[in-house]
Write a structure and sequence with these properties.
0% helix; globular; mainly beta; four-stranded mixed β-sheet; single chain; 62 residues
């Protein structure tokens, strides 16, 4: 909580870390969630499946 890398705000809201498509970290381990700053309007959140980052519709982030 707090600081430069806030994950949970003082209001207890979850803050996803922001990455560009080109700057995404490893998708391992599975279950990670991030915000894709240069994704399309309906594709901003991504979840790791352990191998790839995927948008909620199942499409691989690329």
């Amino acid at each position: 909580m707090g600081g430069a890398n806030t994950v949970v705000t003082a209001e207890r809201h979850l803050m996803l870390r922001s990455y560009t498509v080109a700057g995404l970290p490893s998708a391992a381990p599975e279950g990670q969630m991030v915000y894709v700053s240069d994704g399309s309007s309906n594709r901003r959140m991504a979840v790791s499946d352990g191998t790839s980052w995927r948008f909620p519709d199942g499409a691989v982030v690329s």
